[in-house]
Input
Amino acid sequence: MHDYHIHSNFSTDSQMSMEAACEKAIDIGLTDIAFTDHVDFDYPNFDDSFMIDYHEYRIALQKVREKYQDKLTIAFGVEIGLQPHVHQETLNLLNEHPFDFIILSTHVIDHLDMHVGDFCAGKTREQSYERYLKEVYDSVSSFDKYSVYGHLDLIRRYGGYTDNFFRPGEFDDLLNSILKKIIESGHGIEINTSGFRYGLGTPMPTLDILKKYKELGGELITIGSDAHSPEYIGHGFDYALDMLRCAGFRYIANFKQLNPIYVPID
Output
């Protein structure tokens, strides 16, 4: 089993060492992990905090790869928080390093931070959700260097809305357009189990969106915990795998040099 979304202390919002992550992964029987530390150019109110010293990073990565080489395969990944005005800086960084795996995500919209509530402030649920989905569509339409799109319905975490699920038929045109664009461009999505620890009750995306992705022809999917501390590595994976089976998936993917490797779920 694999956990393809882990944040070490090279991410500003994590204190977990790479070694601690590897020890936990091995302890729970994982065979593959990807460190996907944050890179968010021009993150509001954080200056360069969501940037990485890749010289130090690659030294640390090589150390754990050597230490655990007989027990764990460790991918060199990154989670990119994309904004329209930082495409070139982002592309330059991605071309500069030999990444195995790239998660593309949306964390900031209109220079408003989703995490601290700035983006949803003053908006209805419908306004927030629609604007978020339009931003995701613009990202997958204009940026091509990524492996999977991260936590596709992340907007459900924010805004404090009582009804955080997408209702049947709601935003179908936008969701279908996003998923078709991802599929047609040869990319995939992830199932992200951090929804459990943030009170959503399900991974991200929901089963309905997973089914929609599969029905539209989507096959490429990874599984990740989005762990920022050891206790969440692999968390909720049994539930997530059942969701994937229910949606009709038979394989999950890991990556090497940006190429997917499909592994049977069962």
Notes: Helices lie at 18-27, 54-67, 87-96, 125-142, 172-184, 207-215, 237-247. The chain is about 30% helix and 20% strand.
